[in-house]
TrEMBL record:
Classification via PROSITE patterns: PSI_RSU, S4
Keyword Isomerase: yes
Protein's name according to its UniProt entry: Pseudouridine synthase
Keywords: Isomerase, RNA-binding
Keyword Zinc: no
Organismal lineage: Bacteria, Pseudomonadati, Pseudomonadota, Alphaproteobacteria, Acetobacterales
Example GO BP: enzyme-directed rRNA pseudouridine synthesis
Protein source organism: Commensalibacter melissae
Domain RNA-binding S4: residue ranges: 17-75
GO molecular function, one term: RNA binding
InterPro entries: PsdUridine_s_RsuA/RluB/E/F_cat (IPR042092), PsdUridine_synth_cat_dom_sf (IPR020103), PsdUridine_synth_RsuA/RluA (IPR006145), PsdUridine_synth_RsuA/RluB/E/F (IPR000748), PsdUridine_synth_RsuA/RluB_CS (IPR018496), RsuA_PseudoU_synthase (IPR050343), S4_RNA-bd (IPR002942), S4_RNA-bd_sf (IPR036986)
Reactions performed catalytically: a uridine in RNA = a pseudouridine in RNA
Family membership noted in the UniProt record: Belongs to the pseudouridine synthase RsuA family.
EC number in record: 5.4.99.-
Amino acid sequence: MPKTDPDSPNLSFSKGERIAKWLARAGVASRRDAEKLVSEGKVFINQQQITQPATFVSNNDNVYVNGKLIAYPEHSRLWRYHKPVGLITTHKDPEGRPTVFDALPPNMPRVISVGRLDLNSEGLLLLTNDGSLARQLELPSNHWVRRYRVRVFGHIVQAKLDQLKDGITVEGIHYSPIIAKIDSQKGMNAWLTVSLQEGRNREIRRVMQHFDLQVNRLIRIAYGPFQLGSLPKNSLDEVSGKVIREQTGKHIPLSRNK
């Protein structure tokens, strides 16, 4: 393809979607890697080379990467996934451990996770093909509650857990308010329901360890309005576009063929 001046007045995309976001939704690369492809001059729109990530793509444009025509992205989709213990939430693991994405059906489009669950945690993980939707669902400003069932070992009293309602600082890291209730207790073992809005890395485990409690099972049962319910382990259930719109207010764009 011939190179053209990216600042040419003929190259005007005043409406549509930013190219890096478009490429990420199309499954070409992550948004950051897509921006790199653009800066390297490997992306063309309607046979015109672009080098600016701020360039927009409309429904009538053809996009090429390294000379290959890229299929138009699907509309935004969201799935509930019941993550089992033993999978990590990453696309590539340098240690070669099995990942959530390795376990998905082969006909799944490229998806990313909404937040994470660590190797030894299980339960509800939301997956989407839309990076902007993932970021929207992760925003603390949504005030969406993440709810967990947590089994702990150690001496525990409700009064101590109630201290978490005002937040807590552990090893220099401040955690926002956490609601923890004892559901059942037998000897040194107890099941808790733990609710929080922030969901920092290993937050529950670190906070419980601060109280000399060892977490030996952690199951996420809800993420905002989305529930794990009776979804079997390692199973997927797609959320309808209607529900996505109702719960997020997000406009779900149609693909070119829909």
